[in-house]
Amino acid sequence: MRAVIMAGGSGTRLRPLTCDLPKPMVPVLNRPIAEHIINLLKRYGITEIIATLFYLPDVMRDYFQNGQDFGVQITYAVEEDQPLGTAGSVKNVSELLDDTFLVISGDSITDFNLQKAIDFHRTKGAKATLVLTRVPNPIEFGVVITNSSGEIVRFLEKPSASEIFSDTVNTGIYILEPEVLEYLLPECEQDFSTDLFPLLLEKGEPMYGYIAEGYWCDVGHLDAYREAHYDALQGRVKIDYAYPEVSSGVWVGKNTCIDPTAKIMPPVLIGSNCRIGPRALLEPGTVVGDNVTIGSDADLKRPIIWNGAVIGDDTHLRACVIARGTRADRRAQILEGAVVGALSTIGEEAQISPGVRVWPSKLIESGATLNINLIWGKTAQRNLFGQRGVAGLANVDITPEFAVKLGAAYGSTLKPSDHVTVSRDQRSISRMVTRSLIAGLMSVGIHVQNLEAISIPVARNVLPALNVAGGIHVRIHPDRSDHLLIEFFDDQGIDIPKAQEKKIEGAYFKENLRRSQIHEIGSVSYPSGLLDAYTTAFEDHLNIGSIRSSKSKIVIDYAYAVSGAVLPQLLGKFGCDAVVLNASLNPTVPSAAAREVLLGQLGKVVLALQATFGVQILANGEQLVLVDEIGSPIRGEQLTALMAYMILTAHPRGTVVVPVHASGAIEEIARRHDGQVIRTKANPTALMEACRTHPNVVLGGSGDMGFIFPQLHPGFDAMFCVAKLIEMLLIQERSLGKIWEELPRISHRSQSIRCPWTIKGALMRYLVETHPADSLELVDGVKIVDPSRQNWVLILPDASEPLVRIFANSEDRNWVDRQLQTYRQKVQHFIEVEQN
pTM here? Predict the structure, then answer.
């Protein structure tokens, strides 16, 4: 059997280690990852190897040559012009593959029994077998579900946190028959996970998943890289060590001299031709490459030191990575998670702070403290984007320097001289961050149309008319008053898709930022007439005559979060009496408890003034809470049902889009009006996209997120919602309270349970495996539906917190209470078992 090692990747998430090395040539225990893979293949009698190369191909060819010195025969295939992707690179060598062959990723450490996987493939008569394993946190990998016989029934490449339905993942090891390559186009970029395997599934080709026992680590980022070393030293993976074990847990190469006063605490690996000075301390987990010098009194706690490094006297290294040829001078300190690129020099008494990366061939002056990456700002988490936009503590996570780099990263994903809008709420912190974003955008040649302080519905509405590539809006986070939220829109005003978020993250973390010459720097302009354009669109989608004749009195509470509000002006123009409360901007953002107090006061004002209804406007004009004519609040699922009822009454046979966890009352209301219901993932982007792509949608959203009226614009709009309510109430000749009494009485409750991130995937798999397939809906999370389709329970992982939310829905309140208790106990028991 032949094997193909896919070695084409550049390993961008391992930078700066891969600036001059392809990822398969990054050393683990002083041997390239690719050498560990070749040793694994040899262990199971596979000695004919094809390596597909793209990034720095000569490095691997020069090291392995024809493979004779390593006991194998290696043929190289170089992708000359462009990367062909995982499947495209294998298609490129299809003439060499005339029998069953194995494909293995060049960036993983594993000790799987490949023979068992091959036997499984042959026994099943499979065309393709994916070697699978179970991991605690599957969000970084392709998730796979198989049936009882091992046949693959579903997979999803790199799911978001709320999309996890299993902890069984694709390891990048495949056993394939040559004929599957006929499904691929020649000389075309194609991937196994996103192109070939979905096609095989669609064509009904026999495709199986073999769940392997043993160790597997995708060395895809720096944390995993360090963990692979520590796991190997502790014997968690069966690999071949490069040196003999001279004492228990201590491996030392040839011609290495260790001073008698040095203290070596196993497990430790030390390469050949090294010098370990007097009183040096090497604590468990330390890895030292070949030709390394370690000075006297050096204190090493779990560093990974590559070949040729020089570590000075009294130097302190803490769980860091030191690349080849680097010099750390006397009393230098390189702290946890820091990475120093090849051929760099760290001066005397200099300090590299935790998590900081230093690119190759850099000089850190003596006595300097480096708190940021050498050229660009500090290292951040691997994912910038959460469930909605980029969020973080104001002026702690979201700082001016962070915003400059984020703006440059976003701009670098666009074409030079593109235009984007930038807008914000009225907070000073938002103004500060917006100006920083603008600076970053201009630096990469993007022209900015600064909409300044404006509500988010207006910002979304005007985007298509401005002929821009996209937009950014900065505001206080609607759910966390000490956080900022930065949202990115496409050219139609919809939140950008996950794919574009990944591009921005790639530009940010790889620091792949375009630099414009002086004459190419972007400009800033200030469009006018925005409110006029929004007002015109507003009027075009309302029955203004009905609103004028209603003579409604509306009490509007802005909860001290906005000034100069637009809605009262619009309602006044339409002949309504708008009473405004708390419209000044409070320097302190009101807490949730403070907003509740204001809501109670709003109810009293509505009752005293005998107003038509009251409304509290939240989230910079996106969300609202209603108060009926007797002062009772209507929100959450009640508000979702009320809006669906009113809109479908006016537009029978229409379609309503709601999130997966919305109350089942929506289906009952739709049945009364011959309407349809579409349920989406529980995030705003999914709701907006569904409203845009499905025909005949008359309403989207929920009481918690806000409401979308697709005919106006694709975003949530509380202001238009208020005007539409006035129109509907007049047409239907009833008050809010009367309409609320006519709504279906559905019991809908939820609870939250703490659930570690590492257990979420296993929990979802457990739920899928322990319920009949015909009772499951996997739109988002796991929904268990009873045969009547009326009652259901939804277990939904939270996308941004270590929580799982349980929703129960039924006409029977007792059933809801029982199911919440039952599934809470199930989930808690499973979490306890997994943790123990």
Answer: 0.61
